[in-house]
Amino acid sequence: MLVDSHCHLNYAGLVEEQDAVLDRARNSGVTAMLNISTREREWRDIVATAERESDVWASIGIHPHEADAHPDIDLSKLIDEAEHERVVAIGETGLDYYYDRSDRDRQRQSFRTHIHAARETGLPIIVHTRDAEDDTAGIMAEEMEQGAYTGVIHCFTASEGFAHKALDLGLFISISGIVTFKNAKDLQTTAAKLPSDKLLVETDAPFLAPVPHRGKTGEPAFVADTARFLAELRGETYDDLCQTTAQNFYKLFSKAYP
Q: Any idea which positions bind a divalent metal cation 1 (predicted)?
């Protein structure tokens, strides 16, 4: 039992051979994949993939890079789209101050709107954060005071202190192939200490292919390599880590429970 909790099956590099990508994932032991949206124009295709493939699920959301391009995104639109039976999450959303491809105020506004949608629908929120730890943690804490919600910090690369803040709010943390990189010593130290009951694994495919696939187009099959590395790092067996992270996936994304 192995789950890729975050991938982009409809992105260039994967969509052209999506059937073969899915076959390779299944042959590697992957039993479920969460296909993530980042722009409104993707929603229909991403949901259609989930409708067609029983082991693929969908999210609905706007990436912080796309906040300027979606000034009219509103709460009701997110809630309406999330009613689909194959949609199990809101996002990805969050803050990205590294690239600053969208105005920061608009990113923050979009982030809060997504959190409101998560609260209203009861679906978990998928959070992207880069070079924005303080604002991300602050907004999440403020919004939690307005009403409970749950979610995951995807592709975690932040500080150990931020990890504790997210965990204190009840959020999960997802580890990508970055943890296998030689220069990811701080991340490896943090990942080794994360509580088992809050841990997920992902690829963020087609990005961030783990060792030994660096330089290649990432794909869901590679989550097995990340899981093997992470299990060794944490002193666990591969089978136990796969089982635990899969159970956590279905706990968080309960709408996807088989």
A: 6, 8, 92, 204
